[in-house]
Amino acid sequence: MSELLSKRQAPNQDGRYQHITPESAGWKYVGFDAFQVPQGQTLAFSAKSDEELCIVLVGGKANAILVEQALGEIGDRAGPFERKKPFSLYVTAGDSASLTATTDLELAVCRAPGKGTFPSRLIAPEHVDAEARGVGNNQRYVHNILPDNKEADSLLVVEVYTDEGCTSSYPSHKHDRNAPPEETQLEETYYHRLNPSQGFCIQRVYTDERDLDECMAVYDGDVVKVPRGYHPVATMAGYNSYYLNVMAGPVRKWLFSWEADHAWINSSEYAEKHAN
């Protein structure tokens, strides 16, 4: 099995079934946890003095407390495939948050270096931009939870929906060079969900030189780590895909390069071919 693929594990006593740290991933910036929290259980999270968190309610509802301020019940979708915009909490360095599940709750906890530059805040659905991208068999729908035009020190967080039989994160692109304004170096995790849940999708991670070239069958609840290289996703007939991306690096800007062989998928030629 590829070292880039983190399989969904049996949950621990806190309901955590994914746990990725910079140390376990062999990189510097991105950490990621996923939790399944039963109704009535409370989880507390604290950002260290040198990190920030983005806690995404992937599904379910919870009573939230952020920096000792009660926010009431948040959450507006039973699961990600309702395609409603999510509720999230941004937790700045040194601050804390807690959530008490008022329904069964699926949480994603995204971590990266932080300096406390920006205050903790609720990211409500009205703060999340949405956009459709691509044409033909390369269509996807995006919720920009914490993009590079919103306040954070390091974290970039986005969720992507891809229908059966389509590709996404495609044409193949990469962001592994610290060379702005052409490209930024960003580590990335992909937290995958499939609907129906027994399905799988395919993700490839590879470089121009092919010194890294991994192709993985990814199942519901798995995480793919992208330390460098291109990283397209392809769905299978009968199964829709959701993934939550977490990115961070030395510069908080999403600048990327297309793989030259496949960049023509962005062209008017391809769009006209699929106009009808």
From TrEMBL:
<dbReference type="InterPro" id="IPR011051">
    <property type="entry name" value="RmlC_Cupin_sf"/>
</dbReference>
<keyword id="KW-0413">Isomerase</keyword>
<protein>
    <submittedName>
        <fullName>5-deoxy-glucuronate isomerase</fullName>
        <ecNumber>5.3.1.30</ecNumber>
    </submittedName>
</protein>
<dbReference type="InterPro" id="IPR021120">
    <property type="entry name" value="KduI/IolB_isomerase"/>
</dbReference>
<dbReference type="InterPro" id="IPR024203">
    <property type="entry name" value="Deoxy-glucuronate_isom_IolB"/>
</dbReference>
<dbReference type="GO" id="GO:0102482">
    <property type="term" value="F:5-deoxy-D-glucuronate isomerase activity"/>
</dbReference>
<dbReference type="Pfam" id="PF04962">
    <property type="entry name" value="KduI"/>
</dbReference>
<dbReference type="InterPro" id="IPR014710">
    <property type="entry name" value="RmlC-like_jellyroll"/>
</dbReference>
